[in-house]
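Dear H.,

Thanks for agreeing to be a second pair of eyes. The structure we're designing against is below in token form, covering all 264 positions.
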């Protein structure tokens, strides 16, 4: 008993103090775009061929190829940065990746003429939020969400609490592709919540149906069923991604700082 107590006291604090650090070397990041010209004009389409998620489109353009990557479909396999000969696509190791609009997950190196206006900040959950997780079939994302609540990431230090019933929840955090069999249970879960309420889609499957998109299961992601306020990319999303999405829903200052430079 004494030995255990000594070990506990000498272990120190496991919680990571630095918020949203770059991913460690052993984790795979999402793809990012640089301003280096794409070689699509010379016939390259290696990234499109490598992508198992059909998340990339390329086409010739006047100043080099035009590339777009849908991070809402991307499973972070690292295939496209690995095969890109020009360095147009690189691995993005940043962790502040959640967004409030689906279209913000489309990266592009095309000239951006007009950036989307900022959404008004109106979250009623600025001090705390209670979440009910609904898994529609993505155990990996479920594990990462559970990890966001462990002593290392320590979601509860921000007033983030997971609850057992939608009746006690401010937000649903949904994982998995939301196949047809889950449409009605998910709707009922949402209807059991009191207003105000919001929905967070966590992971590529929940955002777009992921690799199940277009299958007989009619998996189209959460926003085909429920209004979705926050999108957390990744497959599965790293706990920092998850925390970013939840803090974005709370409009926490740590989450709404300018995201790292990316082409959009
Ligand atoms: S990292 Fe994403 S976008 Fe790139 S090939 Fe893999 S799934 Fe496709
Ligand atoms: S982004 Fe890279 S891999 Fe894709 S078409 Fe352009 S040069 Fe080729």
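And this is the sequence the design step returned. I haven't edited it by hand at all.
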């Amino acid at each position: 008993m004494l030995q255990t107590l000594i070990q506990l006291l000498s272990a120190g604090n496991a919680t990571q103090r630095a918020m949203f650090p770059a991913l460690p070397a052993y984790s795979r990041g999402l793809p990012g775009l640089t301003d280096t010209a794409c070689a699509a004009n010379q016939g390259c389409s290696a990234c499109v061929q490598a992508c198992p998620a059909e998340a990339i489109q390329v086409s010739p353009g006047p100043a080099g190829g035009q590339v777009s990557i849908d991070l809402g479909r991307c499973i972070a396999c690292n295939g496209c940065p690995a095969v890109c000969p020009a360095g147009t696509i690189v691995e993005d190791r940043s962790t502040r990746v959640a967004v409030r609009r689906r279209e913000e997950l489309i990266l592009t190196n095309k000239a951006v003429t007009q950036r989307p206006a900022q959404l008004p900040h109106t979250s009623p959950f600025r001090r705390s939020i209670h979440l009910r997780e609904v898994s529609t079939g993505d155990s990996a994302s479920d594990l990462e969400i559970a990890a966001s609540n462990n002593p290392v990431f320590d979601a509860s230090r921000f007033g983030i609490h997971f609850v057992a019933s939608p009746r006690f929840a401010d937000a649903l955090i949904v994982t998995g592709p939301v196949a047809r069999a889950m449409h009605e249970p998910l709707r009922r879960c949402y209807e059991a919540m009191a207003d105000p309420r919001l929905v967070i889609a966590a992971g590529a499957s929940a955002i777009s149906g992921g690799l199940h998109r277009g299958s007989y299961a009619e998996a189209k992601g959460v926003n085909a069923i429920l209004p979705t306020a926050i999108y957390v990319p990744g497959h599965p999303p790293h706990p920092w991604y998850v925390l970013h999405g939840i803090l974005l829903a709370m409009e926490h200052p740590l989450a709404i700082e300018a995201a790292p430079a990316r082409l959009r």
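Two observations from my side: The CA atoms of residues 36 and 88 lie 5 Å apart. Strands lie at 30-33, 56-59, 66-70, 89-92, 106-108, 129-135, 160-162, 171-175, 198-202, 230-232.

Warmly,
E.
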